[in-house]
User: Which sequence fits this backbone?
């Protein structure tokens, strides 16, 4: 069925059937996973999709003994369940993070950006369609080309030089040396769900970047500027039929905050 490469280690499988229970394709009326001879098998189907395999890897993730491999991924290649204490730390991070408008004039290590992008690839998408694409600007030198496309190669680029303090407020990401954009093909119809997916990916990236000690600033204004500039879109390798609503400028923060804050809230407890 499109070669999902569903494999079961019969020596580890205990026949619990949990993989069948959590399979989204099964849940919506499909016939994807069955128990045969005490173990799960994937039924041959014509395509990946709604009532077929969603490529979600739920079967691999739920297996208590690590008996299932699928889509070329084995249990040894993926992360294990996190410590429950991470909830408290994540809560602190969300209260601590600030929009950053002053960045150090140095590039973030490429391996750090790679790690964040790898994690963001797990962002939820409707029906696990996985059609989101990410563009990341990895260096200040590359950012100069983006700014040059937007504003020309004059004074507006001077903030990137070591001795200048211009912040290029015209773009609303200030002197951020890096850029992240989640985008998706519009297709015949661009649905509200597509907007949600793009915004979720943006939020995931922004929070993860802060978890790695980076500063971030989200801008819708910058997204509008970039999407209307063909040269900038070419540099960013974003196809003309793709859409995005926000961008994230990021880098090492020039200043570090000593504590988080408390915002007013309106909560309805039902």
Assistant:
């Amino acid at each position: 069925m499109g070669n999902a490469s569903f494999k079961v280690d019969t020596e580890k499988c205990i026949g619990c059937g949990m993989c069948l229970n959590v399979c989204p394709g099964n849940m919506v009326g499909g016939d994807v996973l069955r128990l045969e001879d005490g173990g799960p098998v994937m039924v041959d189907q014509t395509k990946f999709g709604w009532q077929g395999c969603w490529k979600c890897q739920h079967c691999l993730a739920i297996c208590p003994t690590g008996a299932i491999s699928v889509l070329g991924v084995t249990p040894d290649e993926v992360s294990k369940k996190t410590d429950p204490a991470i909830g408290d730390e994540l809560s602190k991070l969300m209260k601590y993070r600030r929009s950053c408008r002053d960045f150090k004039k140095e590039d973030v290590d490429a391996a750090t950006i790679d790690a964040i992008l790898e994690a963001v690839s797990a962002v939820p998408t409707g029906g696990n369609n996985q059609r989101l694409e990410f563009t990341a600007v990895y260096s200040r030198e590359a950012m100069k080309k983006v700014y040059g496309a937007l504003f020309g190669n004059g004074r507006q680029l001077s903030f990137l030089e070591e001795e200048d303090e211009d912040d290029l407020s015209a773009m609303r990401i200030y002197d951020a040396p890096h850029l992240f954009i989640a985008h998706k093909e519009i297709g015949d119809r661009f649905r509200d769900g597509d907007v949600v997916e793009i915004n979720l990916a943006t939020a995931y990236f922004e929070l993860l970047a802060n978890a790695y000690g980076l500063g971030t600033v989200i801008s819708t204004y910058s997204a509008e500027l970039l999407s209307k500039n063909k040269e900038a879109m070419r540099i960013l390798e974003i196809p003309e039929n793709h859409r995005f609503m926000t961008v994230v400028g990021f880098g090492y923060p020039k200043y570090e905050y000593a504590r988080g804050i408390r915002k007013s809230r309106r909560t309805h407890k039902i």
